[in-house]
Design brief:
Blueprint lengths: L1 E5 L4 H13 L3 E5 L10 H6 L7 E4 L2 E4 L1 H12 L8 H21 L2 H10 L6 H19 L13 H15 L8 H11 L2 H6 L6
InterPro entries: Glutathione-S-Trfase_C-like (IPR010987), Glutathione-S-Trfase_C_sf (IPR036282), Glutathione_S-Trfase (IPR040079), Glutathione_S-Trfase_N (IPR004045), GST_Zeta (IPR005955), GST_Zeta_N (IPR034333), Thioredoxin-like_sf (IPR036249)
Keywords: Isomerase
Family: Belongs to the GST superfamily. Zeta family.
Length: 204
């Protein structure tokens, strides 16, 4: 049995849920409640010394880091999430990394909570999220060529990163009015079964 340790609102877990759906795999979810601190328990730290979700158990392996997991599924299940040429792969990875490596860590629950508590009220959770998600997505908007997907004519790694980030943006009321390319892609992706099935509302 394939097991995903995840949290419904975790955008890194959301990426992996989409990939599992695209692969058409049967899998079970085990919830790790981040709000209750379950990710810091010895049981979860034994799964992932970083104390983060997601963790995927598959093929006798225990994998961490959502992009590493998605690329593992891409390579072993032939998902075609990366384009054929090195130049296009670099472009797709650049969009994916702009989200997963630049926006996401700053807006992680642990990071944002620390900033709020260390600022003695000067920083609010909403203000932090709106600032960093807004600024990060504005750059992604400029990186997108424009079309139904983040890159060319189909789903790539970049789309698996964008959709959860758009969910987060909406959750924190980030204004996407000036981001028509992102809105168009998100609307197209929402119509794909694997994306719809991975939405946090289906896992709460
Ligand atoms: N780079 C990691 C990030 C994982 C990560 O930050 N997960 C978040 C949820 S989206 C988490 O577990 N946060 C717990 C915390 O911040 O304490 C990945 O892509 O898997």
């Amino acid at each position: 049995m394939i097991t995903l340790y995840d949290y419904w609102r975790s955008s890194a877990s959301y990426r992996v849920r989409i990939a599992l759906g695209l692969a058409g795999l049967d899998w079970q979810a085990v919830a790790v409640n981040l709000v209750e601190g379950q990710h810091k328990t010895p049981a979860h730290l034994a799964r992932n010394p970083q104390g983060l979700v997601p963790v995927l158990e598959i093929d006798g392996l225990r994998l961490t880091q959502s992009l590493a997991i998605v690329e593992y599924l891409d390579e072993t299940r032939g998902l075609g999430l990366l384009p054929a040429t090195p130049a296009d792969r670099a472009r797709v990875r650049a969009i994916a990394h702009a989200i997963a490596m630049d926006i996401h860590p700053i807006c992680n629950l642990g990071t944002a909570r620390h900033a709020v508590s260390a600022s003695d009220g000067a920083i609010t959770m909403e203000g932090w999220m709106q600032h960093f998600i807004g600024r990060g997505l504005a750059a992604v908007e400029a990186m997108l060529p424009g079309g139904d997907f983040c890159w060319a004519e189909g789903v790539t790694l970049a789309d698996l990163c964008l959709m959860p980030q758009v969910y987060n943006a909406q959750r924190w009321q980030v204004d996407l009015a000036d981001m028509p390319k992102i809105r168009r892609v998100a609307e197209r992706l929402a119509a794909i079964q694997a994306f719809a099935a991975a939405h946090p509302d289906r896992w709460a």
